[in-house]
């Protein structure tokens, strides 16, 4: 995972509460088996009209927001499905920072697995950023995770808080699995002590066909 | 020892490692896997040269994009076919047990886990699917995770977790006849909002919850995520124990008796404290129908489409305006006058045998409205389907003008060919009325199985309390 330290970029405002992950990556793209290439389909149904003609009314398609890398959003951003395709699409589109008054739990967690910084600010702070972004074409924000600050060219400076562990994961681009595997001794000790298999008493007659015998196609 | 909640007890039992300032490492008892969110996890594991630590605790199933018509035909969607092949190969290579689409135990992951007895009280259960909260009905700590965490669990059988806050939701008193678990949870979400539970684990309690069957409790816990909480739980009781006895993966004989004793001891201790406590009056809950584009946009069947101006918060006002535009609804329209194009009875929320029995009872000897284009019944699993056929439910539904399909997620998510066409309106027993959820431009109204069945007969919503 690429580390996150500092980022400066154009801000795009998505003025809608409760944006769900179904909107970020609709169902028809959930059959892909890769982690890449979802940027093109981010907000697909909002972003495109028939035959993938860009919807001129959707904010991401407005020329002034082309190349945006900071997403300004409303409350409960990323609710609904756990699909990690949503943060994959956000990142692949080029967005590194999402600022909102609140995030849904699973999406928030998924951001940290992908080097995206979700910043939680107060409703008033977010309202103020919406005003600034909409008033001023080319409005940029500089986000510094080492200092936990957001700044703009006009002298605005906002401090934000983030759980210290999550902050470290982003700053160092840590591999969670590698970190957990350092506890192999504790995991093995737990398994020896608790025997997690114990309640399982599978009935041997359960299977009409051995696992994996029939694939998706005939 | 301090009195502990059910959540705290499961947390304490599964703690592998903890250190100040870090997430704890929690052991995962059961990892459920489906074709949609696992391929990238298996390939990530392979690239890193890691193995599946506990294939014996991992169970895979094909459910999201499986066809519900004829499975002997080739899968036409090349991407979906490749994804099925990837899951079959990944399971074969790593020794993970797979219920493929032709297995007689196949079904929606959150239906088969419980019905096979893989899901048990006191366990930690995860799956790359937000509706994993369903399994909390058994007094398990169960929640949805992203694909990176699927990979993490495959590799370590553990998850890094921060402790959640807890919320006790008491539903006191008795529900009216015709008011089901689906109405209870929609009413709760309508009250607390779709972000009301963020950061919390719910525990449901109270007389109306105790009175629910396991199927009802699963419906309740299933939609917990729609209220923003990742997990919802109901303390195990005799209903839980009776459901699990004799299930293929449940313990047997003396082992079952000793397991049951442990399960019954999991309930939150008297005096255990929760971060928040909410009380609801079951008798005040009417059958619910959603009018908007998230499950919190809901009202009673006797209510009307709200006026966006009636919302205090300007962001909510704007959201309601957009929702009504998408849904093609006018403020003030009585919910009972909304005409329907299709009806879908299915999904991990409401496709279990009890759901189908109740819907079948409603439509027996009657026929769906002539104005309906389609009425679908999609059993949650092949076991449910077989049970339904043994009871003659398929004949009742077919005679009433419904289609009786094979098991899968189907039109809840529309990853197979079962989709709601743009501009059409559907009464659905599923869990999400998000824009485009059932099909691009499709308009979803979430309801209980009896409300869906009654709506199919009338061609519009009706208050089932008047006809039961």
Describe the structure.
- The complex is a heterodimer of chains A (218) and B (468).
- Chain A has 218 residues and is of the alpha/beta class.
- The model of chain A is unreliable at 201-218 (pLDDT under 50).
- Chain A is built from eight helices and seven strands, in the order βααβαβαβαβββααα.
- The longest helix of chain A has 13 residues, at 123-135.
- Helices cover 29% and strands 14% of the residues of chain A.
- Chain A has helices at 21-24, 44-47, 85-93, 105-112, 123-135, 164-172, 176-181, 184-194; strands at 6-13, 70-72, 97-100, 117-120, 140-144, 149-151, 157-159.
- The two termini of chain A are 38 Å apart.
- Chain A is globular.
- Chain B has 468 residues and is an alpha/beta fold.
- Chain B has 15 helices and 19 strands.
- Chain B has a five-stranded parallel beta sheet with strand order 5-4-3-6-7. In chain B, strands 17-16-15-18-19 form a five-stranded parallel beta sheet.
- Chains A and B meet through helix 4, helix 7 and helix 8 of A and helix 2, helix 3, strand 5, helix 5 and helix 11 of B.
Q: What structural keywords apply?
A:
heterodimer, A: 218 residues, alpha/beta, Aconitase, domain 4, seven-stranded mixed beta sheet, globular, disordered C terminus, B: 468 residues, 19 strands
**CATH fold-level topology of chain A:** Aconitase, domain 4
Number of strands of chain A: 7
Q: Going by CATH, what is the homologous superfamily of chain A?
A: Aconitase, domain 4
Poorly predicted ranges of chain B (pLDDT <50, ≥5 residues)? none
The proportion of residues forming helix of chain B, as a percent range, comes to: 25-40%
Q: Regarding CATH, which class of chain A?
A: Alpha Beta
Helical run tally of chain B: 15
Shape of chain A: globular
**Given the helix and strand composition of chain B, which structural class is it?**
alpha/beta
Task: List unreliable stretches of 5+ residues of chain A.
Answer: 201-218
Question: What is the terminal-to-terminal distance of chain B?
Answer: 49 Å
Read across the widest sheet of chain B, the strand sequence of neighbours is: 5-4-3-6-7
Q: Indicate the mean pLDDT of chain B.
A: 97
Strand content of chain A: 5-15%
How many DSSP-defined strands of chain B? 19
Helix proportion of residues of chain A, in percent? 25-40%
């Amino acid at each position: 995972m690429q580390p996150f330290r500092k980022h400066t970029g154009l801000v795009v405002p998505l003025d809608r509460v409760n944006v769900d992950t179904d909107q970020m990556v609709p169902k028809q793209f959930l059959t892909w088996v890769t982690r890449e290439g979802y940027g093109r389909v981010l907000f697909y149904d909002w972003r495109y009209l028939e035959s993938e003609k860009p919807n001129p009314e959707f904010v991401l398609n407005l020329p002034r927001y082309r190349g945006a890398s900071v997403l300004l959003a409303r409350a409960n951003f990323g609710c609904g499905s756990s699909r990690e395709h949503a943060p994959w699409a956000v990142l692949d589109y080029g967005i590194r920072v999402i600022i909102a008054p609140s995030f849904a739990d699973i999406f928030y967690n998924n951001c940290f697995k992908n080097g995206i910084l979700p910043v939680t600010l107060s409703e008033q702070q977010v309202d103020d950023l919406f005003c600034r972004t909409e008033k001023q074409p080319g409005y940029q924000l500089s986000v510094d995770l080492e200092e936990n600050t957001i700044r703009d060219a006009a002298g605005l400076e906002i401090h934000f808080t983030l759980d210290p562990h999550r902050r470290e994961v982003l700053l160092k681009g840590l591999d969670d699995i590698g970190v957990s595997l350092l506890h192999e001794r504790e995991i093995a000790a737990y398994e020896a002590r608790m025997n997690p298999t114990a309640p399982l008493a599978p009935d041997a007659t359960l299977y009409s066909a051995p696992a994996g015998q029939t694939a998706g196609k005939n | 020892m301090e009195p502990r909640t059910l959540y705290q007890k499961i947390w304490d039992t599964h703690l592998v490692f903890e250190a100040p300032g870090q997430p704890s490492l929690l052991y995962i008892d059961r990892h459920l896997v489906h074709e949609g969110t696992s391929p990238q996890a298996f390939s990530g594991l392979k690239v890193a040269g890691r193995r599946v630590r506990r294939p014996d605790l991992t169970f895979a199933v094909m459910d999201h994009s499986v066809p519900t018509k004829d499975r002997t035909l080739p899968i036409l969607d090349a991407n979906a076919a490749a994804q099925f092949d990837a899951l079959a190969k990944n399971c074969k290579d790593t020794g993970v047990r797979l219920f493929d689409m032709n297995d007689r135990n196949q079904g929606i992951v959150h239906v088969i886990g419980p019905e096979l007895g893989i899901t048990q009280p006191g366990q930690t259960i995860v799956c790359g699917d937000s509706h994993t909260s369903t399994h909390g009905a058994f007094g398990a700590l169960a929640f949805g995770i992203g694909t990176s965490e699927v990979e993490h669990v495959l590799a370590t059988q553990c998850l890094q977790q921060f402790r959640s806050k807890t919320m006790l939701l008491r539903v006191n008193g008795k529900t009216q006849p015709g008011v089901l678990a689906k109405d209870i949870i929609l009413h709760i979400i309508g009250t607390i909002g779709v972000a009301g539970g963020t950061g919390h684990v719910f525990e449901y309690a109270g007389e109306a919850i105790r009175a629910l069957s396991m199927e009802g409790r699963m419906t309740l816990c299933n939609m917990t995520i729609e209220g923003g909480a990742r997990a919802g739980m109901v303390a195990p009781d005799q209903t839980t124990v009776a459901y699990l006895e004799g299930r293929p993966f449940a313990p047997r004989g003396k082992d079952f008796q000793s397991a049951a004793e442990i399960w019954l001891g999991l309930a939150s201790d008297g005096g255990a404290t929760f971060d928040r406590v909410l009380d609801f009056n079951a008798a005040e809950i009417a059958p619910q129908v959603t009018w908007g584009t998230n499950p919190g946009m809901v009202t009673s069947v006797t209510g009307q489409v709200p006026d966006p101006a009636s919302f205090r918060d300007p962001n909510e006002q704007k959201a309601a305006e957009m929702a009504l535009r998408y849904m093609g609804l006018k403020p003030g329209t009585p919910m009972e006058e909304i005409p329907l194009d299709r009806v879908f009875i299915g999904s991990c929320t409401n496709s279990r045998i009890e759901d189908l029995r109740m819907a079948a009872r409603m439509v027996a000897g009657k026929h769906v409205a002539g104005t309906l284009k389609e009425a679908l019944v999609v059993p949650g699993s092949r076991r449910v389907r077989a049970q339904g056929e043994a009871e003659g439910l398929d004949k009742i539904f077919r005679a009433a003008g419904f289609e009786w399909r094979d098991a899968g997620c189907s039109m809840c998510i529309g990853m197979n060919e079962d989709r709601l066409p743009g501009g059409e309106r559907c009464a659905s027993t599923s869990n999400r009325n998000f824009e485009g959820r059932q099909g691009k431009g499709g308009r979803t109204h979430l309801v209980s199985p009896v409300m869906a069945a009654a709506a199919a007969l009338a061609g519009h919503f009706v208050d089932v309390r008047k006809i039961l």
